[in-house]
Design brief:
The protein is α/β, with parallel strands linked by helices. The chain is built from 13 helices and 12 strands. The chain starts with 5 loop residues before the first strand and ends with a helix.
Amino acid sequence: MAQPRTIIVATASPPFAEGGHLVMARELVGALLECGHDATLLVTPQNRFGRQASAYLAAWCTDVSVAHEGRKVDQVISLRYPAYAVRHDNHVVWLNHRMREYYDLWDQFSVHLSVKAGVKERVRRALIHRVDRHLLTKRVRDLYVISATVQARLRRWGGYESKVLYPPPPKRAYRNDDYGDYLFGVSRLTPLKRFDLVLRALAEPIASGIRCVIAGEGAQLEALVRLRRQLDLDDRVDFTGRIGEQELLEHLGRCRAVVFPTFNEDYGFVTVEAFASGKAVLTCRDSGGPAELVRNGVNGFVVDPTAESLARAMRAVMNDRTLAVRLGEAGAADAAKMTWADAVAQLLRT
């Protein structure tokens, strides 16, 4: 076991935002404490477009070399932009992602900009690329990433080398109560999560009668409710809104399988939480992190991102409970191999 250290885990978040990045940060702090280290969470600002420079500067100016009452900080582990701008001689990055609108999502982001706004954002994008290159190559000891999807982005936009370290499931009281009569999906409801694809799949003839519960809130909720009505799915799809941990565990424990067809996801804790609950995951070939963890026909299904392909996977697990059990048990075995203690050991290696 490594000698006890004083460690800061640094991440960034907009006000009132919750998401996988904060889950990961809190779990890492908890794992460090369990391993005997003195660890705390530092959340730096993440400002809106046009104010990114101030957020990077705030992180850069944050003194992380000394803890409360003069104690020396032995190491910093940062998780995402712009928190990785904090300065420390022993700095390890376990990267969620950079500012995706200036990297892999640039085409989708920039197409809606006016000419004037486009010029401004291109300048900001170029500056962010230069700043990120300096921070991630000159200011850190090790660079880990949460998935091969993030690793590929780093290679494409910058030629960075990194090591993949998959985050384990958050420590929760997962259970498998049954393989019930419905599918379950949970996430922020944004276009990239593609729950519209879930609804269109349920509207396919082959998916007739299949029920789905979708938990979460977000900008796309109203549009999804309208689409549910248009596709005549009101009696088969239930939007629960935001749910707490106990409700999450209950649905994971009772559902037949989890559907998560997100687009180019950085990682997606939903996948490993489903596995920890003994449930198969239905995802797509272009889903990024989930498609790395789901092995087609082994612990879930990885299908083409079309309504028909996803509907066929839905029908397979709903028609065959034995299949759902086999896939779920394989997922549970995979999740059991992922531990926070192992992740901490890698991040603290010298």
